[in-house]
Design brief:
The complex is a heterodimer of chains A (149) and B (135). Chain A is mostly beta strands and 149 residues long. Chain A has one helix and 14 strands, in the order αββββββββββββββ. With 135 residues, chain B is an all-beta fold. Classes of the chains: A mainly beta (149), B mainly beta (135). Chain A: This is Galectin.
Chain lengths: 149, 135
């Protein structure tokens, strides 16, 4: 394929595929009792985004995953790369093209994700971890603010 | 332990200010903030050195293009203290970057790579990241 054709092809692919962002943070100081505050704009063409917290990319204590096509928020955990039992919450009070603020509170035995309308999605801290050094925010969301408190 | 944060596909346009807040540990040697296209192309490498690479209390700025470093720009004003909270604001002004330091002084660095958008942000070294804001 000529380089011009290849470039055309890749431009075309970029148009077909929704833009996905990714932010990864290692060695984060997120401990029990602390909060993670996120602000961002959900991309117009977003079909999903996810917030992952854990000890590493394959060991997640919380996977928080709103899916706009199914109109559901899926939460799960991952142990050594294997997904565990899903929790599903149908309270999707935000949509693509809007700005949102989410607060994740890391309590003794569970995570509480506060949505823009005040609804809380709760998910158990299944392995009782006290320190989560890894965070990843990815998918159709452009972060404008990230805070660990 | 050293922090490492990498954000990609940011699509930041000229005019944006990237505010970074974090804690520098008492035994800090250096930390760095890289802005650019990807891990091989930094329009701005901002590297305060408390005590690293034979430098004491010096800020090094540089660029990296396809993995090759450019010419270092060295700043002797060093308003950072180990064991303190630090805030730096980096503004992407199109043809250059300005960095506002904790004493409110500024340094500028040219956009040598002529990037039109910033897609990559990396914060690493002796810096416990607390906040990142894109304003």
């Amino acid at each position: 394929m000529s380089s011009h054709a290849r470039q055309l092809c890749s431009t075309w692919l970029q148009r077909l595929e929704p833009r996905t962002n990714k932010m990864e943070l290692y060695h984060m100081e997120l401990k029990k009792g602390m909060m993670l505050k996120l602000k961002g704009k959900i991309n117009d063409d977003a079909s999903w985004f996810a917030i992952n917290l854990g000890s590493g990319p394959q060991d997640l204590a919380l996977h928080f995953n709103p899916r706009f096509e199914e109109n559901i928020i899926v939460c799960n955990s991952q142990n050594g790369g294997s997904w565990e039992k899903e929790h599903r919450d149908g309270h999707v009070c935000f949509k693509p093209g809007t700005e949102i603020k989410l607060t994740v509170t890391f309590e003794e035995d569970e995570f509480q994700v506060k949505l823009p309308d005040g609804h809380q999605v709760k998910f158990p801290n299944r392995r009782g971890q006290g320190h989560l050094p890894y965070c990843c925010v990815k998918g159709g969301i452009s972060l404008t603010s990230f805070k660990v408190e | 332990m050293a922090n490492e944060m990498i954000a990609t596909n940011l699509d930041l346009q000229p005019g944006v200010c990237i505010k970074i807040v974090g804690d520098v540990p008492p035994d800090a040697k250096c930390f760095r903030v890289n802005l650019g296209k990807d891990e091989h192309n930094f329009a701005l490498h901002f590297n305060p050195r408390f005590n690293a690479c034979d430098d004491t209390n010096t800020i090094i700025c540089n660029s990296k293009q396809e993995g090759s470093w450019g010419t270092e720009q060295r700043e002797t004003n060093f308003p950072f203290l180990p064991g303190s909270r630090v805030e730096v604001c980096m503004t992407f002004e199109g043809n250059q970057f300005t960095v506002r330091l904790p004493d409110d002084s500024q340094i500028s660095f040219p956009n040598r790579l002529n990037l039109e958008t910033i897609n990559f942000l990396q914060v690493g070294g002796d810096f416990k990241l607390k906040t990142v804001d894109f304003e």
